[in-house]
Amino acid sequence: MLLKEGQVRIPSGCAITGIFSKAGTRISGSKILKSISVMRERSNGLGGGFAGYGIYPEYKDLYALHIFYEGNEAKEEVERFINSHFDVINLSRIPTRKHPHITDAPLIWRYFVAPLVSKLDESQLDEKEYVARCTMNINVKIEGAYVVSCGKNMGVFKGVGFPEHIGEFYRIEDYSGYCWTAHGRYPTNTPGWWGGAHPFGLLDYTVVHNGEISSYDANRRFMEMYGYKCTLLTDTEVITYIIDFLNRRHGISLTDIASVMAAPFWKEIDAMTEADKAKFTALRNVYSSLLITGPFSILLGFEGGMMALNDRLKLRSMVAAQKNDLVLIASEECAIRAICPEVDKIWSLKGGEPFIVTLAGGMN
Amino acid sequence: MEINDIVPQYEVRRNERSCSKCRVCELQCANEVHKYDAQAGVMTADDSKCVNCHRCYALCPVKALKIRKYGHEFRENANWTGQVITEIYKQSNSGSVLLSSMGNPQGCPIYWDKLLINASQVTNPSIDPLREPMETRVFLGAKPAKLEFDEDGNLKTRLAPQLAINVPVLFSAMSYGSISRNAHESLARAAEELGTLYNTGEGGLHEDFYKYGKSTIVQVASGRFGVHPDYLIAGAAIEIKIGQGAKPGIGGHLPGEKIGEDVSRTRMIPEGSDAISPAPHHDIYSIEDLRQLVYSLKEATNYKKPIIVKVAAVHNIAAIASGIARSGADIIAIDGFRGGTGAAPTRIRDNVGIPIELALAAVDQRLRDEGIRNQVSLIIAGSVRNSADIVKAIALGADAVYIGTAALIAMGCHLCRSCHLGRCNWGIATQRKDLVKRLDPDVGYKRLVNLIHAWDHEIKEMLGGMGINAIESLKGNRLMLCGLGLNEKELEILGVRHAGE
What we know:
The complex is a heterodimer.
Chain A: E1 12-21, E2 27-28, H1 29-37, E3 48-53, E4 63-69, H2 72-85, E5 86-93, E6 107-115, H3 117-123, H4 127-141, E7 145-149, E8 154-159, H5 163-169, E9 176-177, E10 179-187, E11 200-202, E12 205-211, H6 216-223, H7 235-249, H8 254-261, H9 266-270, H10 274-286, E13 296-302, E14 305-310, E15 319-323, E16 326-330, H11 333-337, E17 345-348, E18 355-358
Antiparallel strand pairs in A: 1-10, 1-16, 2-9, 3-8, 3-10, 4-6, 4-7, 5-6, 11-12, 12-13, 13-14, 14-18, 15-16, 15-17
Helix pairs in contact in A: 1-5, 6-7
Chain B: E1 10-14, H1 24-28, E2 34-37, E3 42-45, H2 55-59, E4 65-69, H3 82-94, E5 99-100, E6 115-117, E7 138-140, E8 163-165, E9 169-171, H4 181-194, E10 198-199, E11 216-220, H5 229-234, E12 237-241, E13 252-254, H6 261-267, E14 275-277, H7 287-300, E15 307-312, H8 317-325, E16 331-335, E17 344-345, H9 346-351, H10 356-369, E18 377-381, H11 387-396, E19 400-403, H12 405-410, H13 433-436, H14 441-465, E20 481-483, H15 488-494, E21 497-498
Parallel strand pairs in B: 9-19, 10-11, 11-12, 12-15, 15-16, 16-18, 18-19, 20-21
Antiparallel strand pairs in B: 1-4, 2-3, 5-17, 6-20, 7-8, 13-14
Helix pairs in contact in B: 4-14, 8-10, 11-14
């Protein structure tokens, strides 16, 4: 029997692209769709997806849950769970259009929710932790249901197919936001279901990633000590959890997180000033199991910002460009030129050095 | 007439035509196998005394010697083998416990050999260690739950003391007394040059070797031999020895004839007296007592030294390790049942304990299930034979490994398993001055450095093949291993899939 993603680990090659408006100008989803579609060679029709930020301004203070269901039974069970843990302000099917190349789509629903105050108090957790745990509960415990994204004023749209078809299917052009990332996937074998597509999201973090990390099981087994359940066995999932763990739970800055995931070499650390040496040695030592080796290029979306990071040997291509208040980052330059032929500046990102862009308004 | 039914194990074959009667073999053999018969003008040999240590063969200038199995056969019997019968003869002669040296030689499963290592193909690149940085530095010690930084981004958290080692290999505990001064000096100097550590064992630290303190782990065992304040602060870390893989549940015994002037002073016991370390620490009858000893040692050294607790791999090792992790230990060392020894009761060595591979896998998983794996480091021992064993150990979840037997072999040991006789012809497991001087520390240390350099290079090659360029990304990375010829239960305990799965 063919195993589904999550029962088996599937290596993939990929295309990634992202666009960010520092001024917070809302960009149409059609832009990112155009950008990802020119990198068709890097996908093989077995996965594509988009993450948009600032797309739900009318519900910006509510958590937007995007959920896949394999059937009505799972949906009923999840809705019972949601109703007992959240106030549901709005729910609907996510609008899609019929598409000749997109088949076997699950039921795709969206809920705008706020945690039930009494439940939240009882849990003794902060709000984000509460939402994260509820999400993981659904993903682990309820068969046939999968929470695709659960952040505020953002959402993930993904599925099995070429990314441009997935975008058309989801009517991605109907959404606009200050930040978009997109992913086209080239898995070695069929993922079997839509949950395996990317971006992967937890709270407001989403990750698109190109590469195959060699540290995977070291990373996974460390993260599972802290309540994260790796149900998909993909790099992207564990990378998202690492970022959530270090940034949200340990309060470590994204720049320093880059020094954990793509740590400076000891030779570089040994040459630093005493204070820096102590800091970077401690980061590498204490979080040694979160070092990521092997090729990766990731685009992290988060509330108010975007970060790009390459592995420290730069084993995957990633190019960045600037045009006025726009920042564009992609696996290939063509994906940038396709939507922004004239740029002010274009450069190749260096291995292990994070590039972070945030809203000029100062959100971080 | 008394019947001698103990069959010699080995036979000395001498090519009479080549033999020049130079008598080097006679001079070299502390077991007094070779003799010159002046009347007949020939060399003779007493086979019954030969332990097959290769010393005579190695030094024979004309290579006239060959040591063979004796070849005297008992009637074939799969159950009552010649060895079983001979041991009964010996015990009914002497009324004594059988003694053995070095690790269990029985054919118990060696799980290292049933684990295979992964490599990158197509989907991600392998990395060439000759062209790209490849890092094998390891930190051993307790890690804080999280790191905190001030507003300027400077580190606020103060870490518990850490041991930084350049290779994930340390030399395991072998006491001065069980091995020679020159062997200790070789280990200490090699550790210093390699940027790793050696371990004093339970026999104290010779005054001449305090200068290697930064490369030394000082051990505190149940006999407390040679333990005093200067000793405790002399090393980089302190190891509490609870047990040893070769003899779990019992103490040690160094016979009085090995306690000469120097050993006596180092151990702080009278010359010529037997050094007997009790089976348990008599101040540790329970896990909470261990905590008290751990903190006593931390207090005594101002919390500047990591405390290692070394235990033998026994049935309930996962729970024991979890208890140790919660008792303030910075590092846990686990010694498997194939681990070496200078002397152990044969029955205990060959029957008590469990293989280190299974113990390691179980402990690493249990500590993770409890969410405390990052609180402690894990060193494993008994037995690690080569760089592939090290790679497999780290992928199963170890931070680093101890090597004992391999280090002795590098210094010239030929694994004749006769350490307990104290007549080591290679100058390692002996205190006889004429024998000790056969081991030149300049040579011994260099050979140890060579060995670890060679292994480090091989580890880097294997890491690169897996597409990994830092050893920490291998730690606990069990997807990099698969089993071959293992049953479901073994795979489940090891936490690996079967080859082809």
